[in-house]
Amino acid sequence: MDRRPGPVKDAQMTRWTTCDLKTLLAKASPLRSGDQLAGLAAESAEESVRARMALADQPLKRFLAEPVIPYERDEVTRLICDSHDATAFAPLSHMTVGDFRDWILSDDADGAALAAAAPGITPEMAAAVSKIMRNQDLMLAASKVRCVTRFRSTVGLSGRLSSRLQPNHPTDDAAGIMASIVDGLRLGAGDAVIGVNPATDNLAALGDLTDLLAEVIDRYAIPTQACVLTHVTSTIELIAQGRPVDLVFQSIAGTEGANAAFGVDLALLREARDAALSLGRNPASGQVMYFETGQGTALSSGAHHGADQQTLEARAYGVARAFAPFLVNTVVGFIGPEYLFDGRQIIRAGLEDHFCGKLLGLPMGCDVCYTNHCEADQDDMDVLLTLLGAAGVNFVMGVPGADDVMLNYQSTSFHDIQYARRLLNLRPAPEFEAWLEDRGLTDAAGRLVSGTDALPRLEPSR
Amino acid sequence: MSEPPDAAPGRTPVLRPEDRAVTPARVGLGRTGVSQTTAAALAFALDHARARDAVHHGLDPEALIEALGDFGQSATVVASQAGDRSLYLTRPDLGGRLAADGVAALSARADRGADLALVLADGLSSQALRHAPALLAILVPRLQADGWRLAAPVIARHARVALGDEIGEALGATLVLVLIGERPGLTAADSLGAYLTWAPEVGRSNAQRNCVSNIRPEGLPPPAAADTLHWLLTEARRRRLSGVRLKDQSDLRQIGETAPDDAPATLEARRRGPATDPD
Question: Could you report the predicted ipTM of this complex, rounded to two decimals?
Answer without folding.
Answer: 0.92
